[in-house]
Amino acid sequence: MSKWRAVANKASFGVYDESGTQIARINTNLSNQQAVAQKLAASPDLYEALERLMKWAAPIAGDNRNEAAANEEIASVGQARAALAKARGEA
Fold this sequence. Notes:
Helix content is about 55%, strand content about 15%. By secondary structure, it is of the alpha+beta class. A 3-stranded antiparallel sheet has the order 1-2-3, with helices on one face.
């Protein structure tokens, strides 16, 4: 898992990788700068977790005996695929 972290600086929030390299800086003019930095710092971990989840969830999506639940499973897998594609720059 990634060790990106959000750090408060004097006038902004920064996102840093495990080596200490700044990956992003969120300026103070954003009212939600801390939340943005935290989400950005978590994104590699979320991507990895979603990829792992899709390996077992995608093949069984729709197997639920309840039609509404099966449809929700299929829609969820579709949404996850779209998010992963977007993160890879494919969408």
